[in-house]
Amino acid sequence: MDTTAILNNMGSYVKRVGRTAAKPAVLLYLVLKDPATSKKDKYIVYAALAYIVLPINLISAKRIPLLGWVDEAAAIALAYKKVKNNITPDMELEAENMLDRWFSR
């Protein structure tokens, strides 16, 4: 899955979880796009973002809403913790701008 496909599919996740909860996922996306990010870190981010955008999960948020959202949040939180040192102030600003666009619609 390329980064464009991930971004296109993130919109529904972002709207579902809200701006504050979505920010780490958006930052992960920006870390993924950064050429300075190591391959190892990119694999971690790909796995976490794919988990939230692909329809197949260990625990379905549609069947068991609360528990389904917890496993998605855990995937994002673990990936964020692993790669947070890659996040730059420019990425923080870009994430805010992206969230502004999603939530102004």
Could you characterize what this model shows?
With 105 residues, the protein is mainly α. 75% of the residues lie in helices and 0% in strands. The protein is built from 5 helices and no strands. Helix 2 (19-33) crosses helix 3 and helix 2 (19-33) crosses helix 5. The chain is globular.
Give descriptors for this structure:
about 0% strand, globular, about 100 residues, mainly alpha
The count of helical stretches stands at 5
Global outline:
globular
List the secondary-structure elements in sequence, H or E: HHHHH
Mean pLDDT reading: 84
The proportion of residues in beta strands is: under 5%
Biggest β-sheet, characterized? none
Rg on CA atoms, Å:
13 Å
DSSP strand count:
0
In terms of topology, how is this protein built?
Elements lengths: L2 H15 L1 H15 L5 H15 L11 H19 L5 H15 L2
